[in-house]
Structures are given as C-alpha cells and as structure tokens.
Design a protein that fits this description.
The complex is a heterotrimer of chains A (455), B (394) and C (109).
Chain A lengths: L3 E4 L3 H12 L5 E3 L21 H5 L3 H14 L4 E3 L2 E7 L2 E6 L2 E6 L2 E4 L3 E3 L12 E3 H11 L1 E2 L4 E5 L3 H11 L4 E6 L3 H6 L1 H4 L3 H16 L4 E2 L3 E6 L6 E5 L5 E5 L2 E5 L2 E3 L2 H5 L4 E4 L4 E4 L6 E3 L2 E3 L8 H19 L6 H24 L4 H6 L5 E3 L4 E2 H9 L7 H8 L12 H11 L19 E2 L9
Parallel strand pairs in A: 1-2, 1-7, 2-3, 7-22, 9-17, 11-12, 11-17, 12-13
Antiparallel strand pairs in A: 4-5, 5-6, 8-18, 14-15, 15-16, 19-20, 21-22, 23-24
Helix pairs in contact in A: 1-3, 1-10, 4-5, 5-8, 10-11, 13-15
Chain B lengths: L1 E4 L2 E4 L3 H12 L4 E4 L8 H4 L3 E2 L9 H12 L1 H5 L10 E5 L2 H16 L5 E3 L1 H7 L9 E5 L3 E2 L2 H14 L3 E3 L4 E7 L2 E6 L3 E5 L1 E4 L6 H6 L7 E4 L2 E4 L9 E4 L5 E4 L5 E4 L4 E2 L11 H14 L7 E6 L3 E3 L6 E4 L6 E5 L5 H18 L23 H5 L12
Parallel strand pairs in B: 1-12, 2-3, 2-13, 3-9, 5-16, 13-23
Antiparallel strand pairs in B: 4-8, 5-7, 6-7, 10-11, 11-12, 14-19, 14-21, 15-18, 15-20, 16-17, 17-18, 22-23
Helix pairs in contact in B: 1-7, 1-10, 3-10
Chain C lengths: L3 H5 L6 E2 L7 E6 L2 E6 L4 H8 L4 E2 L6 E2 L12 E3 L5 E3 L10 E2 L3 H7 L1
Parallel strand pairs in C: 2-8
Antiparallel strand pairs in C: 2-3, 4-5, 6-7
Classes of the chains: A alpha/beta (455), B alpha/beta (394), C alpha+beta (109).
Chain lengths: 455, 394, 109
C-alpha cells in the first residue's frame, strides 16, 4: 500500500483523510497544532469553559460535523499532532515534534496548509496591542481571551464583521469597525458574490447586527496610523468624507483577508503564477488540486475559498490521488465537487474585490513605516534601495540588499506588501516584482533538534 | 540592434567582474560590463563572507595579501564599507593530527609575513570561553576579516559606474568572436560590442567562452550550503573554522550566527538552482553544536546557497588565454573567490593596461589543464560524491 | 485622547472572558511571580499580566506577538537559560521563568 501523507488538520485535511480511509488506505495526517480543526474550526482545550456552539453561530453544525468526522477517523489513520513539517526533499517530509527532528517518507502528498492574514503595513502596526484579525478570533477560541479592553476592528475583510460580532457576543467593548474598502467596491463585486448567496446574506446579517448594537461602522475609511508609545492608544483614520478621526482604543484587530500558506507547496515542487484578482502568487493546480507528480493541494493553502471550499477541495484532492493510483472514481461525484469548489472560490474572488487589498495605502505609506517586522526594515529603506543606481527591481534581490523578508517569519507577513512597495518604487507592474522564494526550514528549528538524529 | 565600441568588455557581473571593471575605469579605460542577470546575485552575493588569510594555498599568498590590502581600504576606494570588519580568524583543531596540519598552515602563512598566534587548549578556553571542550588547539590570525557579500558586488559596480563604466544587466552574452586584433561580443538583447579585450569572469558559466577559443578546464558546479540562526546577544568576534572543514561560523553584530560546512552539494547552473537539502542543514547544525555548544538552543531561521565553479585542483583560472591574446580568464574560484576578488580585479587591470603584473599568478594558468592535473585531496571530503568532475558546469 | 481609565482598569493587554478550570501554575515574568492555569499559552500568560512579550533585538522596541497562530514569529520569548520559545504555541508549565528583555537574559545566562 502506498504511503500517503496529508499535511494539515483543518477541514481540507480531514475530508481528504476520510475519502482515503473509505478507500481502504491508512494515511498519515500531520498536524502542526495540538488539536485538529485548523484555524477556523479550532477546538478549544477541554479546560476552557467555552460555549463553542454559541461562538460558531450559524457554523456550529459544520464545526460539530467536522470534529465528529475526525473522531471516527482517529483510529484508522496515523495521526501526528504537534508536528511541524519544516522541509520537503526527495519525497520525504522533515519534521519537528517536541523539538526532535524526524522524517516521514511519502509516495503521494496532500498539502492542506491553510492560510494566514494578509497584512498591509501601517504606521504603528508593530505596537503591542495590534494583532491580526484571524489571530483575534483564534485567541478567543483557543484561550478564551479578548485582545484588549477596547478594540478597533480595522482593515478590509469579510472576517472583520464576523470577528467583531463574535467579540461583541463575548462581551467585548468595541470602539469601531473600520472597513477600508468603499461601499461602491462591494456593489461592483456583486456578480461574483452572488455565487454564494447564503454567505452573502450572512455577511449582511453580521453588519446589521453590529449596527444594531450601536457599534460605529466606518466604510471606505483610510487608516493613517496606529498611535501609542509603548502600546496601542488609538487609531487615526480619515473617514469617507475626508475628516480625520482619532478612535481611542487599546487593541486593534487588523487584516486584509487571507493568503495561502504556500511554503511547503513550493518545497514540494509546485509552480506559481500571479493571480491578478487576489494580487498574489498562487500555486498552479488543475481543477482537482494536482500540483505536480504525486502532489495535491487543497483548502485555503491552495486558493482562498473558505471552510466549505476547503472540505470539498480536500475530498477532490483525495479522489484525484486515488484515480492517479489507478482506482477509478465516480465521475458524478468529481463533477459535483469541482462545481462546488469553483463556485465558492469565485465567491472569494468577489470578496477580494469587495474587500480590496489596499494598494493605494502601500503607495501612501510614510518612509519611516516598518515593512518587515522581523528585521525592522522600513518602507523608506526599500524605496531607497530600489531607486539607487543599479537598484534591484525584484523582491528577492531587494531582500538581499535590505534584509526585508530575511527574518524569522521568512517574509510571510511582509511579502505581499514588499511586492507592492517594490513595484510602486520602480513603477513596474506588480507581477514583475516577483515573489519571495522559500527554502527549508519554513519555521525556526533549534540546533539541538538535530542532535538526537545521528547521520 | 545597438552597436557600441569600447576598450574592454567584462562578461559577468560577479565580484571578479565588478572589481576588474572598477580597476580598469580607475586607470582610465573604457569598460562595458555585461551581466546575464543582475550584479552580485550568484555566489558572489551569497557566499560566507569570510576574508580568510590563514590556510590558503601557498601559491595564492601574494595575490591574497594584495587583495586584503584592497579590502582594508575598501571604504576609501568605493565609498562604502560593506560591513568590512577585521574580526580575526580562529582555526581550530580537534586532535594532534589536525594540530600538525594547523602548524603546517601557520608556517606557510608566516613565510609570507602573516602573524599567526599558536593557542593551546587552556588559553583557547580562557580567551573564547564559548568554545566547546573537545578542542585541542588553534591558530589565530588577527588580520583576517569579514564583509557582507550581499552588498559588495553591487557597491563595487556602482563605484565603477560612477567612474564611467557601463554596466549592462539582464543581457546574456551569446557569442564572443575574433574581429581583427579585437573582438565582437554579441548578446541576446541585440546589443553588440566591439572591443580590444574581453574579460571572461562568467563564474560557473565561463567555459562556453573559453571553449569558443579552443581551451577548456574541467570545471564543475557546486553549491556551498549556508545557514543562519536567529539573532542572539553578540559575543563571537572572530570567524571560527574547524580545520577538518566540518564547520565554519561567525556572528554578525546584529546577533545572527552564520554557519556553513562541507560537503558542498551539487548545483544546477542551467536551472540556476542550488537547493539546500534538509539533511545538510541537520548535519551543519550538529557540527556547529559540537564546536560551539552554547548555541545548542539557537534557532535556525534561514538557509541559502549559490552556484560556484570548482576545479579539481581547487585553484582558480586567472590570466591571459593561451590561444587568444586579448582574452583574459578569471573563473573557477572554488569557493575562495571572495577574499581574492579585489586582488584578481587589480591583477587583470595590470595585465590589460600594462601587459604584465608584479603579482605571481603562474599557478593559475589555464594551460595547466593540458596535462593531467593533480586532484586536490579536498575533493573527496568537501563535496557530495557525484558532485566532482562529472557534474560539469555550463 | 485615549481613555486612560479604561486602560488602567486591566493590568494586561488581554481580557479573559471564558474561565479555564485546571491545575494552577506558578511562573515568573521578569522576576515577578504570576499565576496561570494549565492549558494557558505563554502568550496568554504574558498578555494577561502585561503588555509586552519581548523587546526587538534591533533597537529594543516592545513587541507583543501579532498573528497569534504560530506564523509571524514575533512572540519568541526568552526563558532566561539562553533558550527561547514561541509564546503563542507553547503551553505554560509550572516553574517557567520568562524574560521579556534579552538584556536580562544575558545577565542570567
């Protein structure tokens, strides 16, 4: 029986595992977190007295179904929780578990590595008290904590309203929800958004609920900066009518939608193309998630589609893998899943327009704004490097000269902004700026991890 | 099509090419430097950054010392320090056999006027208390230094440009041919340059030009894997190198510890890729902890490599072509090009402008490959098995 | 102007809204004793008791994590024995010693 390995314990990874188990395989499921569910359906620790159904709201049913599905699979797969995959080379995963290095060989690999927030730098965004929007949700589910005593939800993301509402229900004091995309952009995107009317309706519902609760909601505002000396004290914005406002707060949940975690896909050999709708480099796959020989990508780690698309694409990837092993799969089921994934991802494309990545904000950033949190590289240093004689016009060269993207996170967070800043500084199309390449380790690994593993 | 006329075309914008262009324009000669990508992007930009004088090949000392003198004046020369620091270099031995090897290296270096300190076990622990217990002895050379390779080639190219050199990036030389007593250089962008002399400093890609003029060298490509830790409090000043080649490390004042170690891995100059296999990272980590146990909890955050040209006797090719007057080769630096780079540029400028140089370069002639060349004993343990002459550079 | 009363009402950045039941743990942050409950992440412990996780190696500005899910690497906190851990993915354990400032770590090591 071939060694099939799935990386990622979110909806895509779990659904892929279930299809493979039904087909009589016993896949390895590697999960970096201690609990399955990914970030969206993250399972709180038992000791936390959290009413997860209340928190998940309309998604509670799906949450419960996913976790019971996993419970039914648990003994029929080789489950490796708390295991980081830090490298992939010659069909072997290099892992780190409890600080000890190990390897997992595979014949076929499904990567379902999920997503993180996409972030545009802003003056003051490194101050204590500024967290990603996704992170604000995670800390509530995982630790039962709010990110602050008085919170601004800032950015352009459908999650902005969902997260604010979850916080509101948990008793948070919300100073404002500041949406940086103008309402007109949402109208323009309505055709793609109509691809998933239920999700659209839910978005409208979140917004209305916030409004009813008396929480100020600003549309089309331009963030000017986050103020504070040693921690967040307020957010400065220009509202849609051009008035400057200071919103006092001690925490900011900040984000511009999601971006796939594609580091492992790259190490496994996936190729990338620039997607003009998301303005991101995304791995190339076919409709079923094939990204190369014996390599399949699923879920938000392949293309942002949300939890439902993740489940369907996880199933698709597993079917594709089985078909490639010479086991015919139901064409009807494949067509159904492909349609579902395509529809949900088209909806996300609409969301990417309705909640736009703030390109204008990149151009307007003051030079002293930090672009790279890890290495404290400023926007001005990047612009100066690009505009110098023989200055680099490609992000990997800019990284070599400025250190932007060289730190612990390997450009995960500064990468998308770096592309915009470089393209802006040399007045070239964004795709020409390229994308930061990755090498293993994709996350830091301690030197002593290698000691247990003699050659 | 654009046609230009200049006195010298330099092919390749690595460290060698940019320094050569710099010294030529400094002496008043017109230069066009043509680079297939961007300057300093290959091994010139991603090497370890060591300016080591200890332990060099005996025949290389005059060139190395000339080069170090240029490094020591780099800021005055090009207007940029490029993080040059005279950090010193500590060569460490694990046992008596290695200590004897250090002693041999030390005598050669002293013969060329370098000051080498012999350091016993106790003094080693006293002066550098973060070193591991298992070390037998060391030699220390205070004049050895480090610089930031990511910055140097670009800074030298800019300095050359300010003095009048023309730097052409994203342009691949497709043909170099004889044109009377000079040359015509054709490129893939339509640029054609007529010139009196050509410098072949195309690194791992240099053989094509040499072979067009009826000479060759058994060059192969490899990538030296390198690793870096998160920043930790600064305390390691010198570069530290195990004489068995298993590991070399240094700490930059920002706090990151950079380390590398043999064996080097195969690289693909056609695909332009030199990936670092995870097993190399793990063995590098083990070797580093053995010599510097205080780093055992440090996190490795990044690895990289570049494509370098190697020759089986571990010596470069430097000098005028044997077949074609006016063609000058400088390639195959076997991972030692960073330190000698400025010296090589100065020597090539001597050869081109004066027709001769006072710096002895006879050991580096391309003619040595007409006969069977002595294969360096380093080849066996510094490279992955199949990397040696089989994996030919393009 | 920022509302000072709101900010001083809590000693920390985070506000616990869901109780956690379990074994009590004792840790120290920069030498001061704090309590935690089994299951708390180090990040939660640090930010329920203060507003900083670490000081940047370059220039020393305060940082308190960012992504809260193990991706941004901006919450590596010092354990004083020259060991560092990612606070958001590391569970608190009894007796842990946390330092938000690498200079203290230096003296300690």
């Amino acid at each position: 029986m071939p060694d099939v390995v799935i990386v990622g314990g979110g909806p895509a990874g779990i659904r892929a595992a279930s299809i493979l188990v039904e087909a009589g395989l016993r896949p390895v499921l590697v999960n970096e977190a201690r609990e399955v569910g990914g970030q969206g359906y993250r399972k709180p620790a038992r000791s936390l007295a959290l009413d997860i159904n209340a928190l998940m709201g309309s998604e509670a049913g799906k949450y419960q179904r996913l976790h019971s599905l996993f419970a039914s699979l648990r003994e029929r797969i080789d489950y490796r929780p708390g295991t980081l995959v830090w490298g992939i080379h010659e069909k072997t995963l290099h892992t780190l578990s409890d600080d000890v290095a190990g390897t997992i060989p595979y014949d076929a690999l499904i990567l379902a590595t999920g997503a993180t927030d996409r972030i545009m730098p802003l003056p003051g965004w490194t101050l204590p008290g500024v967290f990603t929007l996704g992170g604000a949700q995670v800390i509530l589910k995982d630790q039962g904590c709010l990110i602050g005593s008085r919170i601004v939800f800032l950015g352009s993301s459908p999650l902005l309203f969902l997260a604010a509402l979850q916080y509101r229900r948990s008793g948070a004091s919300i100073a404002a929800v500041v949406d940086t995309t103008p309402f007109s952009a949402k109208r323009a995107a309505i055709r793609d958004l109509a691809a998933s009317p239920r999700t659209l309706a839910r978005g409208v519902m979140y917004r209305t609920a916030l409004h009813m609760a008396g929480i100020p909601v600003l549309d089309g505002a331009t963030p000017l900066g986050i103020d504070g000396k040693d921690h967040v004290e307020g957010v400065r914005v220009k509202d849609s009518r051009g008035r400057e406002r200071l919103i006092s707060c001690d925490a900011v949940a900040y984000g511009h939608g999601l971006k796939p975690e594609t580091q492992l896909a790259e190490l496994a050999g996936a190729r990338f193309r620039f997607d003009p709708d998301f303005r991101l480099w995304l791995p190339e796959t076919d409709l079923d998630g094939r990204a190369g020989a014996d390599l399949y990508l699923a879920g938000d780690g392949a293309a942002i589609g949300g939890a439902d698309a993740a489940e369907a694409s996880g199933a698709l990837a597993a079917h594709a893998l089985l078909a490639d092993m010479g086991r015919p799969q139901s064409e009807t089921e494949l067509v159904r899943l492909r349609r579902q994934v395509e529809r949900l991802r088209r909806f996300q494309k609409g969301l990417a327009q309705a909640f736009a990545w703030p390109i204008a904000q990149a151009a307007a950033l003051p030079d002293e704004t930090i672009a790279c949190r890890c290495e404290a590289v400023t926007v001005g240093e990047i612009r100066a490097a690009v505009q110098a004689p023989l200055g680099p016009r490609e992000v990997n060269r800019v990284k070599a000269i400025t250190r932007c993207g060289m730190g612990r996170c390997q450009g995960r967070f500064c990468g998308p902004a770096l592309q915009e800043i470089v393209a802006g500084a040399c007045e070239a199309p964004i795709a020409e700026a390229g994308r930061l390449r990755i090498q293993a380790p994709v996350k830091p690994i301690p030197l002593h991890a290698a000691l247990e593993l003699e050659p | 099509m654009t046609t230009k006329t200049t006195r010298v075309v330099v092919v390749g914008g690595g460290l060698i090419g940019t320094w050569t262009a710099f010294f030529l324009v400094k002496r008043g000669w017109d230069v066009v430097l043509i680079e297939k990508g961007v300057v300093g992007a290959q091994s010139s930009g991603v090497n370890f950054g060591n300016l080591r004088l200890q332990g060099r090949h005996p025949g290389q000392y005059p060139l190395s010392l000339r080069s170090q003198a240029i490094w020591e004046e780099i800021e005055g020369l090009i207007g940029d320090r490029c993080e040059f620091e005279r950090t010193g270099h500590l060569y460490v031995a694990m046992n008596e056999a290695e200590q004897e090897k250090l002693e041999q290296h030390a005598r050669v270096a002293e013969g060329h006027g370098l000051a080498i300190e012999r350091i016993g076990r106790d003094e080693l622990r006293r002066r550098w208390p973060w070193l591991g217990e298992g070390l037998q002895a060391a030699t220390y050379s205070a004049r050895d230094a480090t610089a930031n390779p990511r910055l140097v080639s670009l800074a030298v190219a800019r300095a050359a440009q300010r003095l009048g050199a023309e730097i052409v990036e994203h342009t691949r030389v497709t043909e170099v041919r004889r044109n009377g007593v000079g040359f015509t250089v054709e490129t893939d962008t339509g640029l054609v340059v007529d010139c009196n002399a050509v410098v072949n400093s195309a690194g791992a890609w240099a053989l094509a030009i040499a072979e067009a003029f009826g000479e060759t060298a058994p060059m192969f490509a490899a990538g030296p894997p390198q690793f870096v830790t998160e920043p930790i409090p600064y305390q390691v000043v010198p570069s530290v190198q195990a004489v068995d080649g298993s590991v070399i490390f240094r700490q930059i004042p920002r706090g990151n510890v950079i380390f590398a170690g043999y064996p080097r891995t195969a690289a693909d100059p056609v695909l332009n890729r030199a990936p670092v296999p995870p097993n190399k990272t793990l063995s590098g980590m083990r070797n580093l902890v053995r010599i510097a146990p205080f780093l055992r909890s440090a996190q490795v955050i990044r690895v990289w490599s570049g494509i370098e040209g190697y020759l089986p006797d571990m010596l470069p090719v430097i000098g005028e072509s044997e077949t074609t007057p006016g063609l000058f080769h400088a390639f195959g630096f076997c991972g030692h090009g960073f330190q000698v780079g400025p010296g090589v540029g100065a020597v090539l400028a001597d050869l081109i402008v004066d027709g001769r140089t006072d710096t002895p370069i006879a050991p580096f002639s391309i003619s040595r490959f007409r006969n069977a060349v002595q294969v360096s004993d380093k080849l066996a343990h510094e490279f992955d098995a199949p990397a040696a002459p089989g994996g030919r550079a393009g | 102007m920022p509302d000072e009363t709101k900010q001083t009402a809590h000693k920390g950045q985070f506000v616990r809204v869901v109780p956690r039941h379990g074994t009590k743990l004792r840790l120290t942050i920069d030498g001061a004793a704090v309590e935690a409950v089994e299951g708390d992440s180090l990040l939660a412990v640090l930010l329920l008791n203060g507003r900083v996780v670490r000081h940047l190696e370059f220039g020393g500005e305060p940082r308190a994590g960012f992504c809260l899910m193990g991706a941004c690497q901006d919450c590596w906190v010092s354990l004083g024995n020259s060991e560092r851990v990612r606070a958001c993915t590391t569970l608190a354990a009894d007796g842990m010693v946390l330092w938000t400032n690498p200079r203290k770590d230096n003296v300690d090591a």
